[in-house]
Amino acid sequence: MGGESAGEEPDLGAAVRGRVRECIGETGLAQYEFADLIGLDQTKLSKSLRGTRRFTPDELIRIARVAGVTVNWLLSGSDSTSAPTAVPAPEALPRRVAEEPDHGRKRHQIVEAAWRLFAQHGFHAVRIADIAEASGTGSSNVLYYFSRKDELFEESLRYSVKLAFDRQVASLDTVADPLERLRHLVDLQLPTPGVTADEWSIWLQSWSAAAVGAMSQENQARAYRRWYQTIHKAIRAGQDAGAFVSEPVEDLSTQLTSLIDGLGIKVLTGALSVEKMREHIRAFIDRCLVAGPAAARPDTAHT
User: Is 130 among the domain residues?
Assistant: First the structure.
């Protein structure tokens, strides 16, 4: 995906354009207002909706984020299937509530503001009043949508699942080689400053809360299961292609996800750099997963 193609039918097709139009309509915004919200030039949005320009993966991610849908839904019309990555259980994704467009936008603004504040300052340091101020509303409005702060935190965890899911669906299909796909999958989840580091902060806090009974262990495990299953799926695909060793896929998936989790915590606490984390994970993949000499495989994964 990506780039303009004068008069050429995009691979994404008319169905995707129709779903984007549906998203715009459900927000209750004018097309130019929606373009501003997703940071896209109005002319480019118009060309994409006419079929003379393709939506890029990054644009689809931004559309899904603003509209409160998943990239998987934009591409396929469903959240029940996805080729490159495991699909979250419905309960692991942000709740869809039938409501008027302005209520939906306000709910989304509250969740995004809370997610960012929780990630950057920690659950206990954030007040409902802080979330209200950051989302441009009042505390009573926040409590209208979410009766308790911990309920809003669990919605923030579901929001983190959606963000990671969207990134993976948008770009994993562009990488054909199983080894490069696994490397790219890992790169997509590195806690680089910005969105992914904020996601990691939410995850770290959810693990801590679940460990002491401050949030549902079932909800936390359900959210984490999708990440584990995505790694599992990538390793299984590599084994089927003969690229990875024929060790039990459950063991390899557990070892790799545990390594990623532990190194990610070190990055968040300042004990390790993101680049060193990436190097350690690459070394593990080459040493423990790759069938045959890893040095002979080209390192062309996305950075």
Answer: yes
- Same domain, residue pair 10 and 80: no
pLDDT tens string, the chain, 303 residues long: the values are: 344 444 444 445 799 999 999 999 988 889 999 999 999 999 999 999 999 999 999 999 999 998 889 999 999 888 887 777 888 988 888 877 767 777 888 998 999 999 999 999 999 999 999 999 999 999 999 999 999 999 999 999 999 999 999 999 999 988 999 999 999 999 999 999 999 999 999 999 999 998 888 888 888 898 899 999 999 999 999 999 999 999 999 999 999 999 999 999 999 999 999 999 999 999 999 999 998 764 444 554 443
Domain holding 158, by residue range, is: 68-296
In whole angstroms, what is the distance from residue 73 CA to residue 71 CA?
5
Do 266 and 281 contact (CB within 8 A), yes or no?
no
Its pTM surpasses 0.90? no
251 occurs within a structural domain: yes
The answer to whether position 301 is within a domain reads no
DSSP 32-90: HHHHHHTT--HHHHHHHHHTSBPPPHHHHHHHHHHHT--HHHHHHS-SS--SSSPPPPG
- 51, 77: one domain: no
260 domain residue, yes or no: yes
Domains of the chain: total: 2
Assess whether 271 and 145 both reside in one domain.
yes
Cα–Cα distance measured from residue 90 to residue 210, given in angstroms and rounded to the nearest whole number? 20
DSSP-based three-state secondary structure for 4? strand
Amino acid at 184: H
Q: Which domain CATH number covers 175?
A: 1.10.357.10
Instruction: Mention every residue, 6+ apart, whose C-beta is less than 8 A from residue 88.
Output: 79, 161, 162, 165, 223, 226
